[in-house]
Amino acid sequence: MLTVGLTHYLVLSAILFSLGLFGVVTRRNAILVLMGVELILNSANINFIAFSHYGNLNIDGQLAAVFVIILAAAEAAVALAIVLNIYKTFQTVNVDEINKLKE
Amino acid sequence: MLQSTLDGILNSLKVFQPEITLTVVLCLILILDLILKNRPKIIAWSLFVGLLITGYFLIQQTNGLTISAFENMFLVDPFSVYFRMLIILTSIFIVMFSMMSGELYNGKRKLGEYYIFVASATLGMFLMSGAGNLLMMYLAIELTSLSFYILSGYKKEVPDSNEASLKYLIYGAVSSGMMLYGISIIYGLTGSLDFININKAFQVSEVSFLPLVAANILMLVGFGFKISAVPFHFWTPDVYEGAPITITAFLSVASKAAGFAVLMRYFFTAYYNPVASALSGSIATLSGFDWNIIIAIISVATMTIGNFIAIWQTNLKRLLAYSSIAHAGYMLMGIVVLSNEGIAAILIYFAVYLFMNLGAFYIVMLIADKIGSEDIESYKGLGYKTPFMAVVLSIFLISLTGLPPTAGFIGKLYLFAALINHQWIWLAIVGVLNSVVSLYYYVKVFRNMFLKNIDEQHNEIKFNAPQIIVALLLVIPTLVFGLYFSPLVNLAQASVSILGLK
């Protein structure tokens, strides 16, 4: 019988982090880039909670996770508003096409 | 138990006055904006008065007060007070600039929210410079960033401003996410989020080296983004060019100052080695982890790339963006030496940098409102159209280069002196060579203003009295600190003490 330990959680969070970073780097759609960011934030959350639970540490880690969840929501609200405005101006949310400033 | 907790909170609230004032001001202008409906002048003046009151409470704390508030969440020490003074001074100037900015007031834009976000960014940076806990630090950085994402895209109908906002958002979100992952690893390694407890954990037990370095590089991504250090600088030129100039100036001074405060506090406190420091008389790092080498490499890359790319810029705002990257590189040199002398040099440099950089952006803003362009080409013959502003801009540019008798020279002098006193000669040489390179592109602006199109017919450009007064408020300190700098140096040397370092 396999018991789930700290290592499993750390590997899971590392995979999520890598996937998130990969998504940010490869995706061209602004919304998908933001989804990659959410994956990165949640991978850190898994770390916090896993360390707090298995390391018999204080409750700081779990508190941090709660704060990060709230912050991710706030960030998504601001980010989506900005992307919506981008769509109104450029008629696209492709981050490669929104590149007028580099001339 | 409950009584002692309550007492702790009440005592903490006493030293938290400036932040409380700022929060109250923020709520008040929010409500005032709802009631008055689009009367930006009143909102701006209320914020201005609110910032002055906050500044008053802050000055009350300049007596060397060293207290940790809210269980080490927020640290009030001379170091944080100094940085918060820089930030509040910048905010006051930014509110003044905003009231005069043509690009903000043209069009039917609602400006109430603009000032609300200026206030919330200021609050975020206040909390950054005093944060003593990784979670607090992260939340403060995010509060600042979220406000700046919105502010940089405030000219909603202008495509450039939109693009700036999106780029700042994507780079900011990714780098703060990576920093959070680094924080989670540090938490796992030490079992604490508190800087001082992290330090204790490192002193007691050996921590495996690889995760420690990985976590700190991830954290440096977040810090590097805030101070726009190479290789995390890609957002800087685009955002600085696209954002309203007032916000560009705000980002380049206050946001960078807060980033430096939090970077220095984290690295100095968490990896402080009390035994070795007592022996050597400087701030020694824990054995096996010389983080200052990483900073030295970043510093060299930052100033070199910033200065060399600035040479090819044709837009003055973009040029100043690269110049501000280069200045971050100079200031990072002060961290590398790991001593109070280095910290003091950075503090002096920041005070000087505040006046000269804000000043340069201010003149660019005024001239852009009149001639409708930020191109260096369009500055030809400007020295004859508006001699006063052209001379003032030249003083700021000379100061940014670091030539006497301006304040920029004093800033650089103390930095290089700190480097040479601690045997970092090669780094000092790189810094001096970089200053020489920077002379070239600053002089280009100077040449266009005074030596081109001399014979043409020049229509005079007029500026009103408040605009000239604000320009004087910035140019006088730039000149005075170049000649009479001992008060500034004394203040900086009294402000080096970081809580947790003996």
At a glance:
The complex is a heterodimer of chains A (103) and B (502). Chain A contains 3 helices and no strands.
Examine the secondary-structure arrangement and name the CATH architecture of chain A: Orthogonal Bundle
Number of helices of chain B: 22
Span between N and C termini of chain B?
30 Å
Secondary structure category of chain B: mainly alpha
Proportion in helices of chain B: over 70%
Q: So what's the overall shape of chain B?
A: globular
Q: Please, what is the oligomeric state? A: heterodimer
Rg of chain A, alpha carbons: 17 Å
Structural class of chain A: mainly alpha
Number of strands of chain B: 2
Describe this protein's structure.
The complex is a heterodimer of chains A (103) and B (502). In chain A, helix 1 (6-26) runs antiparallel to helix 2 and helix 2 packs antiparallel against helix 3. Helices cover 75% and strands 0% of the residues of chain A. Chain A has helices spanning 6-26, 30-54, 60-90. The mean pLDDT of chain B is 92. Chain B starts with a helix and ends in an 8-residue tail after the last helix. The longest helix of chain B has 32 residues, at 159-190. In chain B, helix 12 (245-270) packs antiparallel against helix 16 (340-371).
Attribute tags:
heterodimer, A: 103 residues, mainly alpha, Helix Hairpins, 3 helices, B: 502 residues, 22 helices, globular
Topology:
The complex is a heterodimer of chains A (103) and B (502).
Chain A: H1 6-26, H2 30-54, H3 60-90
Chain B: H1 2-15, H2 17-36, H3 40-59, E1 67-69, E2 74-76, H4 78-100, H5 102-105, H6 112-130, H7 134-152, H8 159-190, H9 195-204, H10 209-227, H11 235-242, H12 245-270, H13 274-280, H14 291-310, H15 316-336, H16 340-371, H17 382-385, H18 387-401, H19 407-421, H20 425-450, H21 465-483, H22 486-494
Helix pairs in contact in B: 2-3, 2-6, 3-4, 3-6, 4-6, 4-12, 4-16, 6-7, 6-12, 7-8, 7-12, 8-10, 8-11, 10-12, 11-12, 11-15, 12-15, 12-16, 14-15, 14-20, 15-16, 15-19, 15-20, 16-18, 16-19, 16-21, 16-22, 18-20, 18-21, 19-21
